[in-house]
Amino acid sequence: MKSSARAVIIGGGVVGASVLYHLAKLGWRDVLLVEKSELTSGSTWHAAGGMHTFNGEANISRLQKYTIDLYREIEALSGHSCGLHPNGGLMLAANQGELDSLRLICSRARYLGMETEMISLAQALELNPLIDTRHFIGALWRADGGHCDPSGTTQAYAKAARLLGAEVERFTRVLALRQRADASWDVVTDKGTVHAEHVVNCAGLWAREVGHLVGIELPVLAMEHHYLITEDIPELAGRSRELVNTTDYAGEIYLRQERAGVLIGTYEPHGIVWAPVKTPDDFSMQLLPEDFERLAPYFEVGFEHFPALGRVGIRKAVNGPFTFAPDGNPLVGPVRGLRNYWVACAVMAGFSQGGGIGLVLSRWMADGDPGQDILSMDVARFGAFATPKYVSLKVPENYARRFRLAYPNEELPAARPVRRSPIYERLLAAGAVMGANFGLENALWFAPPGMAPAETPSYRRSEAFPVVRAECHAVRGNVGLYETSNYGKYEVCGRGARAWLDRVFASRIPRPGRIALAPMLNENGRIVGDLSIACLTEERFLVVGSGFAEEFHLRWFWAASPPADVQVRSVASTLCGVSLAGPRARELLQPLVRMDLSADAFRLFRVTETAVGYTPAILTRAGFTGELGYEIWTTPDYFATLYDDLVSAGAPLGLAHFGARALSSLRLEKGYGSFNKDFRPDYTPGETGLDRFVDFAKGEFTGRAAALAERAAGAKRRFVILEVLAADAEVVGYESIMKDGAAVGYVTSGAFGHVIGKSLAAGYVPSALARDGARFEIDVLGETRTAVVHSQPLYDPQGLRLRA
Ligand SMILES: Cc1cc2nc3c(=O)[nH]c(=O)nc-3n(C[C@H](O)[C@H](O)[C@H](O)COP(=O)(O)OP(=O)(O)OC[C@H]3O[C@@H](n4cnc5c(N)ncnc54)[C@H](O)[C@@H]3O)c2cc1C
Whose CA is nearest to atom 50 of ligand 1? Predict the structure, then answer.
């Protein structure tokens, strides 16, 4: 075995093999994959090999399409067959919610360039004659996907990589990882030590244990999974083409043709965690005992929906383990605090996703950037909240829902409530219906007295719709209170703080007592953060951003190497916050503070430290609703007292609570984009409109050259707010924006603007088309709706209320 390599990849399943291939393809020839047993011997060899392009996240869908298209390339390069059956896919809906979800997939697929259409049940029957159509009401057909041979595909990657100069060492187990002072690694194996610049954890079923080698606890867990292969099915004899791979949501069943029979698998509701504490070292090319008794009721549903399957015997049963993250998406990328250590694990759909993961990870390792937004599979979407106990409850929940539809208004109950703010119980008493963001409970809306604090999952307007409308009117007409504890918060202190912030952020850094809106860019000039910076003193700053992105931003700050005279720390759990918004916010707050809050004395984007009632607090004049507003931050020990003071002072004024749903509506009325939804690392300052906060005149900052180049060339597309006419349901996200029959852009978020009385969509369209009044079409749950661009905010375009 060689004694040094540029990168060592640990694990020879389909994911490790793909990472090896992609590194070699982009020119890293000196790369080595070490596998403790035979290639594929973890979860890869017994997979059903199904592949598809659909994922709730557009960028993951794109990477899945890339993966499937790649197989022809590696077959040609390696001369090794991937055993492709590009049959396409069929998805069956049994109720209105499922039908809506299929229509949403169709609307999204157009911009993604995927051939997808709603078809009749009669057409579905032609593609799969085994369906008992009485159980279904609609179907979607997609051209992409089918299945492949898991072992052949992995070997094809490995062989193609070897032909490019990469090496594979089988039967070589990694025992320890030791980092040298220069951040390179000694990879200690049972066959000797390899010195490597980078290591990649692709250890699949053992990813958790390989994480332990460097002292990290990855949020990953394996579940048992069963599929059956039937004996030959007479109905398939003599057919000229294979069955189209079929997903039955109601039955939670997938099936495909396997020779003259059918492979049928189920994601049962009470799945079994495998190896909850430690994956056995000696598990290799093994299956688990079958448990037909437990699974019989679920397969019975399959036999009912596809009766021919029940009329033949079972030829083979497979029960094998594979891994999941709590939300079912992979864990990819670098880990904060560990230089040159990368993960690509928790991949539950290796044959749909392995290629795309190899592509983005190899770019990330070579260029320092994945080349596109992959927030939804970035390992940094989880933080300390994803403890082993949390993971042990969330992974089975996700497994059980693998084929259930995730409704946009649905909140999943497992491992909740865990992270609670000090006013959690008070908000519940006020009727709060909670969601969880980065593990922290936050109010979505407030059920009024007499109404149950619960909501029917739906793609359409729910019983919460009129309640959210009332909350929006309360904010615009009077005053509302919203808890902001779930924002990401960081304290940056020290003599070098200003200079460091100046380099990391693209905005100007505010002077003491002021706040600046602060975009953060990567070297390619893409948006990696849309935060605010409040300067408390010359050497102390409070930085606030998206709560979801806390670990992502902490990793970014760490990678930006704060010098010795700068301290950066998360204050997520040591600062709680509340926002007051509405024309009477000043009237409410003034009696609680000694300072003068009048418009001239405490203007928009000012910050101060003061007492609010009993509470020592940081008080800012800012907010996200477009109304006169304040944000108040304090420590957890004072937070309930602060809340009580505000509620008492607000009672005579009719203070209302409002939640995240109302905030989405209010912000879109003002045309404000939100990080993670509208602003992500795919977009630039010019495209998002955040260029107005970029300080091009200051010295060097990360992404400056790229941002300047964009400014010179002009942005290719623009973030716009569209009014969706005659809509009876709101857009969800990623629906295609159509012009003259062509998909020209897509939606990033949507809400009903309750005060202006319009259904709103935010999204991107080509700059040339982004004119006031420009008309487009958006397919909203199967209905084509006209969508009209509004280049000015629909509410208070001059911002008079904000500055009041
Ligand atoms: C029954 C079943 C059906 C499935 N069906 C499908 C399907 O239809 N479509 C689909 O896309 N996916 C399917 N999957 C999931 C698929 O198998 C996984 O997504 C995929 O195998 C993940 O590959 P991996 O490379 O991440 O992990 P693994 O295949 O587990 O590979 C990890 C490798 O790392 C090696 N390793 C671990 N520790 C060390 C160490 N210390 N030193 C050296 N080597 C080490 C292991 O030996 C192993 O070979 C199915 C899984 C099961 C169980």
Answer: 47
